[in-house]
Amino acid sequence: MNFGNISRKNFKKGIFFLWALLAASSLFTSPKSASAATPPPASTSYYMDTIDTQTLYDMGYQKGREDYNKAGTQKSIVILDFGGQPTSNSLSLRGMPDATLDQAAKAVEEYSHGYWKGTGTDTGSLVHVIVGTNNSYNVTYEGGQNFAKMINNINSYNNTNSYSDQVEVDGGNDMEPSYADPVSTRNWVKGYDTVNSYSLYNYGAADGCYHTNTSTGSINYSCNNGWKYEDLYYVSWGAPPAVPLPQIYDNGGIMAEQWQNINKYAIVSHNAYMDFTGSLTQYGACQQNGCSSSLDNTPSQGWTQFYNKLNSDPKTAESTLDSTDIKWH
């Protein structure tokens, strides 16, 4: 289901109300057993270097065929990360020639078409496509607005062609403190929020944020580049369309601890329990091009770290988390 500005606010209120009831009940007085946690199958997400419509159609079709050939109804997340915005109307394509937002939209529409076609007689499976950028280039209010308009247009096209029956499309942004200052990043999110009809997933990091488990949530700790917990909370949950899907890359569990602490801060400072969608790892990308040996969690390792950390405290416990792993296209 997609959530617009008003319904997303109501949805978040409902999440917190349910959390409050559970937290007050005897069912929620102790952390969940970590030993009972089984990681779900991880989907594959992509750093995109192309907006070729045939290529995107083929990717969607292959994903559709994979889901068709699996037993039961499939539901998974696929991030298509097209890089930062050199201008408010373009995407960097990870070092390839820049693409316009319109070109990226057509590519995602063809991915949707391909998935819908590939599932054949399986009309129940669903792919949740998160169309992504990052905050490392020209990060502006207008850029956020234009990105949201692109997401709206993709969904309008998919609705017209019935692709939305099996393809959910939302916006995404790999927002990281080291990429840009908090003011410009928050303004980008505010721009997105002025015209959006669909959610915005932050699949970024909380680099430099305080990460010891002694945090009670009462202090607005600092992070890299002038960011604070408050900024990470705003771009991940506090803004009406924002939803967190954080990177859990590091082997030592620091990233999981950072995000649990930000959730504690949200609960104490805003009466807002952050409902995490899942965990993002980069094992596939590391296998392709290499990465720091401390940042190559497998999908199951990243998911287990995050699940166990959240469920080590009843206040931040989470029952359902998805898993996706990103690689280079």
Domain module count: 1
Mean pLDDT: 92
Share in β-strands: 15-25%
State the strand order across the main sheet.
8-7-6-5-2-1-10-9
The CATH class label is Alpha Beta
Taken in chain order, the helices and strands follow as HEHEEEHEHEHEHEHEHHE
Computed CA radius of gyration, to the nearest angstrom: 19 Å
| Fraction in helix | 40-55%
Number of strands: 10
Main β-sheet: number of strands, strand sense, barrel status? 8 strands, parallel
Q: Give the overall shape, derived from the CA principal axes.
A: globular
CATH topology: TIM Barrel
Write the layout of secondary structure elements.
Blueprint: H1 5-24, E1 43-47, H2 53-68, E2 75-81, E3 90-91, E4 99-100, H3 101-118, E5 126-134, H4 141-160, E6 167-174, H5 182-195, E7 200-202, H6 229-238, E8 242-244, H7 254-270, E9 278-281, H8 283-289, H9 299-310, E10 322-328
Parallel strand pairs: 1-2, 1-10, 2-5, 5-6, 6-7, 7-8, 9-10
Antiparallel strand pairs: 3-4
Helix pairs in contact: 2-3, 3-4, 4-5, 6-7, 7-9
Brief digest:
The protein has helices spanning 5-24, 53-68, 101-118, 141-160, 182-195, 229-238, 254-270, 283-289, 299-310, and strands at residues 43-47, 75-81, 90-91, 99-100, 126-134, 167-174, 200-202, 242-244, 278-281, 322-328.
If you had to describe this structure to a student in words, what would you say it looks like?
By secondary structure, the protein is an alpha/beta fold. It has a single domain (40-205, 212-328), classed as TIM Barrel (Alpha-Beta Barrel). The protein is 41% helix and 15% strand. The protein contains nine helices and ten strands. It has helices spanning 5-24, 53-68, 101-118, 141-160, 182-195, 229-238, 254-270, 283-289, 299-310; strands at residues 43-47, 75-81, 90-91, 99-100, 126-134, 167-174, 200-202, 242-244, 278-281, 322-328. Strands 8-7-6-5-2-1-10-9 form an eight-stranded parallel sheet. A hairpin with a 7-residue loop joins β3 and β4 (99-100). α2 packs parallel to α3 (101-118), α4 runs parallel beside α5 (182-195) and α7 (254-270) runs parallel beside α9. The radius of gyration is 19 Å and the shape is globular. Mean pLDDT is 92; it is low at 1-7 and 24-35.
